[in-house]
Specification:
By secondary structure, the chain is an alpha/beta fold. It is about 35% helix and about 15% strand. The chain is built from 10 helices and 8 strands. It has an 8-stranded parallel β-sheet. Helix 5 runs parallel beside helix 6 and helix 8 packs parallel to helix 10. It is globular and about 45 Å long. The two termini are about 30 Å apart. Bound molecules: D-xylitol-5-phosphate (DX5) and zinc ion. Zinc ion (ZN) binds next to strand 2.
Length: about 260
């Protein structure tokens, strides 16, 4: 089970806010191991919205998170679901929710998702006007705080924000729709983001979202990602559980041989 494996480094089902690969409370020996842990976050955007609880259950025994794409038809040209659906879903799944807010006013809404019980809440750098305040409010409400960057947004300006962030999400498609083609152009930025995290010895996970599949997940892991969102690759598969297992084993193998995990 994934939670047993991850519990060697940190408790994925426990306190999602302050534990993590770079958590300073972890002994050194565990730090290195946990740094290399792969997490898979299936996106329900590609699932059957009329059967969300069953679709969540379909991956509950193999996934680490359930990725929930909140879209408002303003920040992105698509409309999905909002706080009431997240509140309802929380009552019907054992998986921690990884809420990705693709909305115009995350400063107004993000803390409510954390208060509702989402274990991770990610806001977009392009949409927030007060990232420090909003990220702190997410953490204060008990969730992990994520910061997302679109493919065309540089990561370097956010280096000083790393202490405020639990997860950096680099979009590998333009946000808005599932099933788009993976953008290889993001890979150099992924490498730079991983180097930035290492340089700062930051307790920050590095997530990729968009076009992640059997064909692309190894490239992401080699470049530095450790949390992988996959929508169509999981929910369009005949067997979603098997798809998650396959993605995890490819990502783990690629992580083992990745330059960024080599002892320095
Ligand atoms: C897209 C969303 C993604 C989407 C990914 O804007 O943020 O989470 O579900 O879908 P796939 O994996 O099909 O590209
Ligand atoms: Zn997403």
């Amino acid at each position: 089970m994934c939670n047993r494996r991850l519990s060697r480094g940190y408790d994925i089902r426990g306190d999602h806010r302050r534990t993590g690969p770079g958590d300073k409370r972890l002994p050194g020996a565990l730090y290195t191991h946990a740094y290399m842990a792969v997490q898979i976050s299936p996106s329900i955007l590609s699932s059957d919205f009329a059967r969300l609880a069953e679709e969540a259950a379909a991956v509950a025994s193999v996934a680490d998170w359930l990725h929930v794409d909140v879209m408002d038809y303003h920040f992105v040209p698509n409309l999905t679901l909002g706080l009431p659906v997240v509140q309802a879903l929380l009552k019907h799944t054992s998986l921690p929710l990884d809420c990705h807010l693709m909305i115009d006013d995350p400063d107004r809404w993000a803390p409510s998702y954390a208060e509702a019980g989402a274990r991770n809440v990610t806001i977009h750098a392009e949409a927030t006007h007060a990232p420090v305040r909003t990220l702190r409010m997410i953490r204060a409400a008990g969730a992990r705080a994520g910061l997302a960057l679109n493919p065309g947004t540089a990561v370097e300006p956010y280096e000083d924000l790393l202490p405020e962030v639990d997860m950096l999400l680099l979009m590998t498609v333009e946000p808005g729709f599932g099933g788009q083609a993976f953008l290889d152009m993001v890979l150099p930025k992924l490498r730079r983001a991983r180097a930035m995290i290492k340089r700062n010895d930051a307790a920050v996970w590095l997530q990729v979202d968009g076009g992640v599949s059997d064909e692309t997940i190894e490239r992401c892991a080699e470049a530095g990602a450790d949390v992988f969102v996959a929508g169509s690759a999981v929910y369009d598969a005949d067997d979603p559980e098997r798809a998650v297992r396959g993605l995890r084993s490819r990502a783990e193998a690629a992580t083992q041989r990745a330059p960024w995990t080599a002892a320095s």
